């Protein structure tokens, strides 16, 4: 059998800055998001969110709601039809316990406590208001200080594993200089521009859902579990997601309620969360408090890096922010410890939000590194280079690739880091504003989840490639098609790409920055499978110029099969297929990482972010005026779209550093800023001078494509860089994010 | 709830619908006229995803009642490309990768078009402030500004 | 909900006076619709004022002042050259309300009737000495803008009364006004402190002044002591310090999620100084 391993080539389809293939649909308004679907005979569902954070609902004015014109059904725990699955169960890898009116208890503010169906959205909304719930409220705890910290027992998703390498006490004892600092990060909510929405329709025991999903097939399995049907009876259509950021990877309670309502009424049901409800049963990044103790020897080498993180989860489920993970693989400290602690509060269950762990953890770590560098009298970049990890700290494993040093140097050069005064408060601009420069290191792991794909080469020389991949904006429709086209040796315009539908081969999870790597590997393998079959046909067909090629390697390029290194012998795909009877060839592929690769290598993307801030000395108004990020993330499939992802991440970092935070009313437990007027994210006017450098990195181990992933790393390092720049401008070290003006004024 | 008969012009075409007075123009466009390009991102006028023009003025259609559109001219994303030909802004958004998830994109394009109609030669700062009411959570702000500036140059007949 | 679109203010007032349940007037709708959508306030009667003739007009009064219709949105104020020349501070206050989209709808009257202590357009109107014309079941009356808000979310308007016009006095010579606000974000935010200054010069010396502060007390404040601190001066450093001290002293703010009381007090003084400087320069002939 011919060996048809595909060489990885830059400069064919992959590596090209191709414009989005879904661009026209999106700029004309033709792209249909889930709430854009309105099947005939539709009912609108609105859920009523609890306005207390702990206690019970004692009364609803069900009659008033039911009597409102246009209201068709009022569902409360008293009359909710049964579901087949247990709301407390976790049917899939990424699941949380759901609140689906299983009882009258309230466990956090914003929890759904009733569902109203109506012929119009307005009727259902008014019906929900008329329910006028009464409560028996109990005292609430919503602040990290309100709970009793405990050690988290590691146990997979949501329950992170700490680690110790070396003798941490000895490391502390050996320090010539040391710091012991505590940083706080706030609770943040994903707030994708598209709120969660679902249109559910039953046909017998088959269920069709228009719902944005970062993991289509996994969510089918979860929905199937709750309704006692086989997973293949559930169809999820999710061609476009209006952003996900982690929140759309996990089926939420309101979706299950909408499906239940559709089954109960026999009509299609649409439920779309309001923006205010996006601060409820949707997951969030929990607040953390992180203590960092570091020590250095006389040369500036870290003798100890000791990172303890405290984070909050709900009272009824586990998702603890793995913040101290950020310290597990970054610096070559003599001794390392990463500890995770938790408290339980009257809040909704948190969940993964863009760069879970690393975003919060690196915010604290990178500021602490800056503090340590200052204590040592060292330049922050020099200090990081002094502690550069050539192998994975603790384990000594080699990195599959690590161009972090290049990121530091290229980023610093572009930013103009040279000549930065060591001491703070030294720089002013022509308008008299304080100027400060800061930096932070970024890292993010590159996991692969399992994915499958199918490729079909048609007799006309075009191909169809299929996987249920999710495009939440990152560009899966485009970059995955580029990978597929390369694996088939076809130009991009000859390849039709189907995704976003659960009937396709399982595209895995669009999360963990691993979607391109995972679904891309599956597509690559599927394409290679087709070419392998094609090569077999040609090699055994006496009429083919490739006949008798035996064990030669075939190369597929521009719709032709070649013998590697011998361009004189080739044949068009169409000719090979025509002689073989004109049937299409179908191949399949899987995207998984062999476990031994993970045992042998440490794998991460890396980066370095440099920030400049300008601050009004009288009012302490802060502006980030420049951000330069240099990232090494393996092979970049589409530089244009990857740059967008990295820039977006850096602006998320700006948002983390200066804007985002929910505030709970400590009496009622309600979030007081649960809308986009009160929950600040950056606006166009907040963003200036943004630059992204992608540092070349060939990685032969991480996967066959050499792809690591760019979805999340942009935020990591940026938060610390901005915090450090603010210190450098003012001399004031603010250890609570977001950094507020009044903190600077009163510091 | 008695419904009110509304006659309005959307992207140059006269349309009629019956509106519950509580219904927003956004919901009327989406649910009664099937024009789902305008999106609801917040319902409070904070995100701009529902941006349309009303008698030429840029507004959030979530903050306009359907009944208020009676006798007025409404412009939506569906009317930005004419006869299947993309507007220069639409082309430049694709070219510059000024969109990611695309949910905020229709509103941003309607807003940017309204800007260029009244100010064909805006500064970068003017663009940033004009579009400050259009949130993008994928945060493509930098590329959005570049695309608008480039489209403006294109419309003025200048090479970018 | 009943939707009304009367053609006179008298009719509007009559409908409102006769209404039994919750009544809201609709001008720009940027507050009313938010309340309606969120389910916080679902009016039984919604009275749309925009079909009343003249509500979109900006007209010069006989004495040289300005009469502004209640449906005139912020964007139209900013596009009116005459008004911008006379009262740039009033216009810039309104133009800070919300986004471009909100500017296409939001009105001075709505911003005032919302009763928010942080309403950006109100300090400028108060400093300007603006009045409102109110139409009610008993006829028409006039009230200084400063007396319209009586507490957060509360106004001096009685049942059935509706603001039918905003009236600005004649500007006169050698005068200028300015409004500045402080927000944490670059744009799209609510004032943590707002300061408006209107003044008139006699030569280089300030002959008259009015200073108004927003978001530092339950209602917008007209701070006589702050005005006194600069009247009779050329806005020298000591006058500026006295202005800042008087402005800060007048504050009675709350701690909330947007800013602490101490921070607001500090910032109020700085903002008053900066607004006074701009108003002074404008009175000297600098263009707005």
Can you describe this structure?
Chain A is of the alpha+beta class. Among the domains of chain A are: 23-31 and 449-592, Aldehyde Oxidoreductase, domain 4 (2-Layer Sandwich); 357-448 and 593-653 and 687-747, Aldehyde oxidase/xanthine dehydrogenase, molybdopterin binding domain (Aldehyde Oxidoreductase, domain 4, 2-Layer Sandwich), CATH 3.30.365. A 7-stranded mixed β-sheet of chain A has the order 3-5-1-13-10-11-12, with helices on both faces. In chain A, strands 7, 8, 9, 14, 15 and 16 form a 6-stranded mixed β-sheet that branches. In chain A, α14 crosses α15 (718-730). Chain B has 160 residues and is α+β, with helices and mostly antiparallel strands. Helix content of chain B is 32%, strand content 16%. In chain B, strands 2-1-5-3-4 form a 5-stranded mixed β-sheet, with helices on both faces. By secondary structure, chain C is an alpha+beta fold. Among the domains of chain C are: 1-48, Uridine Diphospho-n-acetylenolpyruvylglucosamine Reductase, domain 2, CATH 3.30.43; 175-283, Enolase-like, domain 1 (2-Layer Sandwich). Chain C is built from 11 helices and 14 strands. In chain C, β6 (131-136) and β7 (139-144) form a beta hairpin. In chain C, α5 runs antiparallel to α8. The longest helix of chain C has 23 residues, at 261-283. Chain C is globular, with a radius of gyration of 19 Å. The model of chain C has no long low-confidence stretch (mean pLDDT 93). Classes of the chains: A alpha+beta (747), B alpha+beta (160), C alpha+beta (288). At the A-B interface, α1, α3 and α14 of A face α1, α2, α3, α4 and α5 of B.
Task: Give the topology, please.
The complex is a heterotrimer of chains A (747), B (160) and C (288).
Chain A (H helix, E strand, L loop, with lengths): L22 H5 L15 E7 L5 E5 L2 H6 L3 E5 L29 E2 L5 E7 L2 H10 L3 E4 L12 E2 L11 E3 L2 H6 L3 E9 L11 E7 L2 E5 L5 H12 L6 E4 L15 H13 L3 E4 L15 E9 L5 E13 L20 E11 L12 H19 L3 H7 L17 H12 L11 E2 L5 E12 L5 E7 L5 E4 L9 H13 L6 E4 L16 H25 L14 E4 L2 E4 L2 E7 H7 L5 E7 L3 H6 L3 E12 L6 E11 L6 H20 L31 E5 L23 H13 L10 H6 L1
Parallel strand pairs in A: 1-13, 11-12, 15-16, 20-21, 27-28
Antiparallel strand pairs in A: 1-5, 2-4, 2-6, 3-5, 7-16, 8-16, 9-14, 10-11, 10-13, 14-15, 17-18, 18-26, 19-20, 19-25, 22-23, 23-24, 26-27
Helix pairs in contact in A: 7-15, 10-11, 14-15
Chain B lengths: L3 E7 L2 E7 L5 H8 L18 E4 L2 E4 L12 E3 L12 H8 L9 H14 L5 H7 L10 H15 L5
Parallel strand pairs in B: 1-5
Antiparallel strand pairs in B: 1-2, 3-4, 3-5
Chain C lengths: L1 E3 L4 H10 L4 E4 L5 H7 L6 E4 L9 E3 L5 E3 L5 H5 L2 H6 L1 H8 L4 H4 L4 H6 L7 H8 L2 E6 L2 E6 L4 E3 L2 E2 L6 E7 L6 E8 L10 E10 L2 E10 L6 E2 L1 H7 L6 H14 L10 H23 L5
Parallel strand pairs in C: 1-3, 2-3
Antiparallel strand pairs in C: 4-5, 5-10, 6-7, 6-10, 8-9, 11-12, 12-13, 13-14
Helix pairs in contact in C: 5-8, 9-10, 10-11
